[in-house]
Amino acid sequence: MRRKRFVLGATAMIAVGLMGFAAGVSVGQEKKTTVYELRTYTVLPGRLPALHKRFAEHTMKLFEKQGMRNGMYWVPTDDARKDNTLIYVLAHESQEAADRSWKAFQADPEWIRVRDASEVDGKILAKPPERVYMKLTDYSPSR
Prior knowledge:
The longest helix has 21 residues, at 2-22. The protein is of the alpha+beta class. Helix 2 runs antiparallel to helix 4. The protein has 4 helices and 4 strands. Helix content is 43%, strand content 19%. Strands 2-3-1-4 form a 4-stranded antiparallel sheet, sandwiched between helices.
């Protein structure tokens, strides 16, 4: 359990740092209201390739369309989760912006079409996505 928390915490820290670095954010440039969202998807057996395809070909673009900024995407390396888990980070201008973006995304006819087409061979997710909203600390290197 401690290892799992450590891995999740380390993943979040790396994600936030890399997002700031990749975006060229330096001290004082980032909005103080930025909210980061760490999401973890667990899929049904054999369905991770379908999820990767959906993200690579459609979902990431649809996130941007709704005002969400894509960060980093990972798959775990441990045997228990390497074939059934996707972890990623999104950035939002604020918690309210995140709520608006997700509402618009869920209602987007293009998303509904893509989701339904990707699940023609069966559902992909084993359970609803886990998510954690986060904000940078004052001592974060990417601030």
